[in-house]
Amino acid sequence: MIPADLFVAALLIPVATAILIPIAGRWPNVREGVTIVGAALQFGMVAALAVEVANGARPSVLVTTILPGLDIGFAVEPLGALFALVAGTLWLANSVYSIGYMRGNSEPRQTTFYLLFAVAIASAMGIAFSGNLFTLFLFYEVLTLATYPLVTHKASPGAMLGGRTYLIVLMSTSIGLLLPAIAITGYLAGTLDFAAGGILEGTASTLVLGALLAAYVFGIGKAAVMPVHFWLPAAMVAPTPVSALLHAVAVVKAGVFTVVKVIVYVFGVGMLATTGAGDWLVYVAGFTVLAASIVALRQTNLKRMLAYSTVSQLSYVVLAAAILVPISVTGAALHIAAHAVSKITLFFAAGSVYTAAHATEIGQLRGIGRRMPWTMVAFAIGAFSMIGIPPTAGFLSKWYMLSGAMEAESWVAVGVIVLSTILNAAYFLPIVWRAFVSPSDGQTPTVRHGEAPLPIVMALTATAIGVVALFFFPGTPFTLAELVGGS
Amino acid sequence: MEDQLPILQVVVPLLGALLVALFRERTLAWGIAVVVSWLAAAISAWLLALVVDGNTISYELGGWPREIGIEYRVDLLAAIFLVLVSWIGAVIVTIARQSVASEIDRDRQAWFYTMYLLCVTGLLGIAITGDAFNAFVFLEVSSLSSYALIAFGKDRRALLSAYQYLIMGTIGATMYVIGVGLLYMQTGTLNLGLIAERIGDVESTRSILAALAFIVVGISLKLALFPLHLWLPNAYAYAPSVATIFLAATATKVAVYLLIRYLFSVFDEGFVFGDLPVTETLIALSLAAMFGASAVAVFQTNIKRMLAYSSVGQIGYITLGIAIATTTGLTGGIVHAINHGLIKAAAFTAVAAIVLRTGAVKLTDLEGIGRKMPLTMTAFVIAGLGLIGVPGTVGFVSKWYLIDASVEAGWWWLGFLVVASSLLALLYVGRVVEVAYFRAPKGEVAAAEEAPPLMIAGAWALAAAVIYLGIDTDLTAGIAADAAAELLGTTP
């Protein structure tokens, strides 16, 4: 297959899966079969595409023109290929996991669940491959709308409130800020197409460009830069597979992906560095990194803690991109992949604990490592990667970010990275310690339990292996990240 | 045949109304109304095809020259509104039978279709005529029949609403005719084209200024420009469901047509927007509608009233586009008139289906309706996305034009206000979605079944148009842009 076919297939496979799922809805095994086959095919496509793009292929397709200057078109570049690779790969792992989780917890409306999941992945692919800002915005909105029913899956009053926050924050930022930012970009640059080196150079004063960048950063609510982060903890009412894939991978990564894409392909790293229009972003992102970590430190609910950790980690990506040197941009791209595979592992573990032991609070995890060794070892690997301890993927990306910060002599960024590493350790290591070393205090095993169902264990083991493998064999993802940075 | 199309456009539904009134049998009445409406739709499509390349059709009634007789004149702008009214009218009457049967007394159903066709006749007449007084006549034809349509409502408050509308509508029509009288006094003609030719000599006289004021205010009452919208929410809320769909989708839009016609082709737009503070006034009122009426919509408990207030808000977008008065702005206004017609038709059709099955219009009585009538509610949700302006729907296309026009004119703040106001739509649409999907069905809703196939087909056809025309915009934005360029004398 030529590269263009590959990415068109990667766009259409989730769509086809979404169409087939309700047809097979009456037979759960067939339905899950459809999801698994779709996800496996998807994995093949994005993997092959990533290799092609790493070797220099840049396929593109123009679908239609809606209005003059408003095209639906796709163009694959390294960053998009990397994001698609991450989302596509983890969709497969998550599908296996979902089967164990949804059946293990006897969740209702499973057909709708799998259907919307496939739609969400299709939108993530649309975002990854979009060739211009309008196409990106289109799929960005579809992703919000497709994930809203997933967040509210439980249909309880709590889910409704969480869903309300989710929808209102994401849509008010995207419609209220991102859309005008896109319109203004189109007016200033005369085009909405992404281009290497950016399209805005010399079109407006530094002040206007700085304000425009702010409209983008805060308009892309999915990137969860404070103060538009609070939809993410609210979204934790969703079933864990949703939190895992969407709120650790597809949705939030779509956010930071978009931020990096806008910085690299709309503003241009060089232009931002020479004008200084984006200097403020280092502080905003740095603040988010630290503040979210401090909030995470104080959480007692495991999923909420992971949510705040995600907020913090997302801003690493924004911070790294805002440092504006090639090596840090590479770090940003790499961290999209590293955080995704690590955080999904952590969420898988959290859901595993919930399914097997019905534990949701951090205090309930004493001694659980002895009853659920696979789960908690995977959790530990994910946690190490969050902190940046080798040999995990998190070390690699953090190394690049730190090198970039030093190269740019951005001491604020260096300080933020060092300090937040300490904070990460402070909230992750006690959990690992308690799970394995602390004696059970007698109150925990209200139910006797062992490991979670096999699909869950398989999935979290696979992603944990991925966290380590990415350190030893960074391969194609690393090549793609280097190409993004242009180093 | 082709030469006679302009008169057939009006005469066909008029004769249809007469036929229905003569037979007075309800199923036959519906059948005639369907056939006649689709004929009118075909004629309008034909007319559009004839003028789409920039030609203008002039038809002199009875062969009298336009100086003394009545001229029908079809240009691009007129053709767009003819197509909008006749096509939406045709779709709605096709799905109307069961809803009308359930909401209106047996022996009065035929009269309902008579009034419906008269209303269609009047609206098409306003759009096609090139004569100021003839437009008044058609305005009254459509208004009187719509008062009757509203009064058919089951609820006793329907009578009061119809009466309110009658009073306000009559004031509006009177103002309009006073304005036309002043124009006639100064120019000696009632033909819009001739008025436009002669008005230059007398432009800044006080009479012409007064004429402009009377006409604009009169039409603004009919199009429910904030704060002249007070008749609208009750009228939409208590009218029979089918009448609500039709009036919401078309009646105010034809008033928009008339306003555009006067501001841009009868009066000189340089005079109106350049010398007079029309832009400022109209922008302020539009913004008040976009924010005020939409905010009121958020707090409504009756779904029909909610959509009615939403209409007042959405009309604000249309008048905003007109107020900006550039090619892009005017295109946005025209295209939103079309798009909003489609969206509201889809939304109110879904509501009509829900009323048919449950009789409920209060949000609290609609809990869980999304689980019982999933197909109907899907159409409603798509229409709701259109109201919010999500990309991929027609609502986005109109908003894009309005933002673009604001930025082009250097008013960036206005662009931000346009998008900020659409968030209010997110709130009121979101309220319906939460009620419909997150609560357990009870009462009437628990026993409800999915709407009849024809109504679902209609709602889905309209919802599909909301999406399709949001992606392929040649038919809407493309033609609207040509029409705007024609009106402003610019090249697209």
Q: How many β strands of chain B by DSSP?
A: 2
Query: What fraction, in percent, of the residue positions of chain B are helical?
Result: over 70%
> What does the main sheet of chain B amount to?
2 strands, antiparallel
The greatest inter-chain interface is formed by: A-B, 29 and 32 residues
Shape of chain A: globular
The total domain count of chain A is: 1
> Which structural class do the helices and strands of chain A define?
mainly alpha
> In what order do the strands lie side by side in the largest sheet of chain A?
1-2
Low-pLDDT runs of 5+ residues of chain B are none
SS elements, strand count of chain A: 2
Poorly predicted runs of 5 or more residues of chain A: none
Number of helices of chain B: 22
Distance between the first and last residues' Cα of chain A: 29 Å
Q: Can you tell me the overall shape of chain B? A: globular
What does it look like?
The complex is a heterodimer of chains A (487) and B (492). Chain A starts with a helix and ends with a helix. Chain A is mainly α and 487 residues long. Chain A is globular. Helix content of chain A is 75%, strand content 3%. Chain B has 492 residues and is mainly alpha-helical. Chain B has a domain of 216 residues. Chain B has a two-stranded antiparallel sheet. The longest helix of chain B is centred in the C-terminal third of the chain and has 32 residues. Chain B is globular.
